[in-house]
Amino acid sequence: MKRALTATALLFIVLGLSACAVAPFTTPKSGHSLGKGNWQVDASVLPVPGALVAAGVTDDFDAGVLYEVQFGSVISAFGKYSLVNNRTGWATSLYAGAFTAASVGTTNGYYVGPVISYKTKTVEPYISIRYSWVKWDLDGATEDDVDDSIITIDTFEPEITFAYVQTDFGFNFWVKESFGVNVHGKLWTVFDDNIAVSSTVMPGVAFLFNF
């Protein structure tokens, strides 16, 4: 436990100091739609602080925006459509979004993926497998400017693009219908020989508020 807490603290510090952003760490945590006219606030604590606000546009489609403090400040907009939308039991959704960020350089990109969950009255396990494409514009920056990043770049260039998959697996514990506690883990898989990341599972904690 002590080792895990230390690793989490170091990750939090490094993320705040690093130069280049990636796609939002925050992902949808349920295959269920919010339902037309309903809202949710997803307040992330770990691995990075952030807030996601989503609204049910229709019974099966949600739209939202999010803000994160990671490798710089990240802003994103997304949509989520539920293919299987049972009130309890299994649910499956597809979601996609775009993001932008600015720090030493500028970052832009998009992401897409499914989220599958199984909801009971109090517990909802889920898994999200998200593909992300990232473009770093580092014009005017130097290799030293991005040395603090936990992402290792083999060959430094003014413009770098890469793709990776972020897998989230965890549980929503619903204290009541309007409030839940989320605990999950994140794992990255990068599809670029020029980019290397830690293979460590990153712990995540968030609080969910339904309105």
Per DSSP, the total helix count is: 1
Estimate percent helicity: under 10%
Profile the largest sheet: 10 strands, antiparallel, barrel
Secondary structure class reads: mainly beta
Give structural notes.
With 211 residues, this protein is mainly β. It has one domain (2-210): Porin (Beta Barrel), CATH 2.40.160. It is 8% helix and 59% strand. It is built from one helix and twelve strands; from the N terminus they run αββββββββββββ. The chain has one helix at residues 2-17, and strands at 39-46, 50-56, 61-70, 72-85, 89-102, 106-119, 123-137, 152-153, 159-176, 179-190, 195-196, 202-210. The protein has a ten-stranded antiparallel β-barrel with strand order 1-2-3-4-5-6-7-9-10-12. Strands 8-11 form a two-stranded antiparallel ribbon. β6 and β7 (123-137) form a beta hairpin. The chain is elongated. The termini are far apart.
Task: Tell me the layout of helices and strands.
Blueprint: H1 2-17, E1 39-46, E2 50-56, E3 61-70, E4 72-85, E5 89-102, E6 106-119, E7 123-137, E8 152-153, E9 159-176, E10 179-190, E11 195-196, E12 202-210
Antiparallel strand pairs: 1-2, 1-12, 2-3, 3-4, 4-5, 5-6, 6-7, 7-9, 8-11, 9-10, 10-12
Summary keywords:
mainly beta, Porin, ten-stranded antiparallel β-barrel, two-stranded antiparallel ribbon, 1 helix, 12 strands, 8% helix, 59% strand, elongated
Short description:
This protein has 211 residues and is mainly beta.
